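Sequence only, no structure available. Ideas?
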Amino acid sequence: MRIGIEIDDLYCKESDWDLLKKVVFFCKNEEKFHIKTKLYGCKRCEPLPRPSNAVINHSRLDCSAFVETIRIFCKARYFGSFRNALNEGARAYFDMHIGTAFVEKWNQWKNSGTKKHADRIERVTADIERLFHFPRLEINASTDVKTLLVKIEGKTYRLEELGSGVAQFIVALGNAAMQSPSLLLIDEPEANLHPSLQQDFLLTLASYAHEGVVFSTHSLGLARSVANDIYTVQYRDGRRTVRPFAATPNYAEFLGELSFSAFQDLGGGALLLVEGVNDVKTAHQFLRLFGVEHRVIVLPLGGNQFISADREAELGEIKRLSSKVHVLIDSERLSPDAQVDEKRVRFQETCGKLGFRVCVTERRAIENYFTERAIKEALGEKYRELAPYEKLENAEPAWRKAESWKIARLMTKGELEGTDIGQLLAELCAEQDSLGSPRAI
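Reply:
I predicted one. C-alpha cells follow.
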C-alpha cells in the first residue's frame, strides 16, 4: 500500500521552512509515503515535484501545530536497555554515548567546557548524590580517560567497582543532561534497580526532558505508579496491536508488581495513598524533602471516583498488606468556611476505622501549597502562586496538573513545614526513623 498526500496553499512561517522542507523530503523518500506541498507565507516558497499518486488536497492549512510536533520528535532521544559505561570502547549506543566516548564527554563538559556545561555536570552529580543518599560525591574521569573515578565520602572507587545500578544512573542522567532532549524514549528503566529507586530514576530523567518521558517496561506496577497514560502492546497473528490500558488495579496485585514484599524486607513498607497518578509524582517529590522517598510507596487511589464511603473492602485489602498506611486527599473547598464534600468526609471516616492516618488538605488542593518562587523557577515568570482556595483551572495562565511535580521538585522543606501536608510528612519521617528503616543505597 502506497499513500500520497498533496497539500496546496500550506501556510508556514519563514523560520519553519527549513525544518518543514526536511520533513517533506524525508517523507517523500520513504517507500510508502509521499508528500507534495506548495507553501505560501514565506519568501522561500518552492513547490515540490508532484507525485503521480497524490490523493488528498487541503487549502490554506496552518501548519504551526504540525511543525511544533515535528520539532519535538526531531529533538527526541532514545536510550536503549543497555546503559553501562564500561568496557565498550568509544562508540554510541543509539542516542547514548557509552564506554570511553561517554567518559571523554564527561571529562570535557566538566573540565574544558563552558560554565553551562559544568553546571549541568554538577546537577547530575547532585541528583545522584541525593538519589543514593551519598553524603559527599565527586565524579571525575581517570587519568587515561578510560573510566570514571567516583569519590564517596573521601574514598575513591572505579565505576566498575560500584555495580551496574550506579553506572546506569551516571550514564543515563549524564547523557540526558548533555543532550537536553525534548522527549526521552527509554527501554526498561527498571533494569538493575531496586524497586525503591525505579520511580525516582524515571522522575529524575523526566526533569532533563522538556516534554517528558515515554518508557516501555515489563513492570505494570511501575507504569501504574508514574505514567499519565498507559498502553499495552500485544502481538497476535503476525500483527502488533496497541491499546489503552484502563484496568482498575487490584491493590494486592499492584503492590506485588512493585515488589512490595522485597521493599518490606529492607525495613520499608509504609504506604501513602493519594488521589491520582499526577499526585503520586508530586507526593514523591515532597517525600524527598523529608528524606523518605525510598522508604515509602506512593499509591494512586484511581481518582475522584474512588473517594466514597463504599470502599472499605478495597481499603481493607491495603491494610492487610501494610499496617503503616497514610492518606492524602484534596479537600476541594472553595473558601475557608466551606465544608468538605460529604463523600470525602465519609471516605475519611472509613479510613479512620481501618486505622489509617488521613490528611484532607486545609487548602483546596495540593497545588495550592506551591510557592511563587518554585512555580516561576519551574515553569516561567508568567505563572503565579494560587490563592489558598483557588481552582487551578481559574488561574491565567494555568499550568497542566501533569506539570505539578516539576514545581514540587523545586520546593524546600521549609516551605512545607508548618502546613498540614508538612505535618503529615514529618510524621511519616518520624515513623520510619523509629522503625530503623535503612536508606536505599
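The longest strand covers residues 3-11.
Hope that gets you unstuck.
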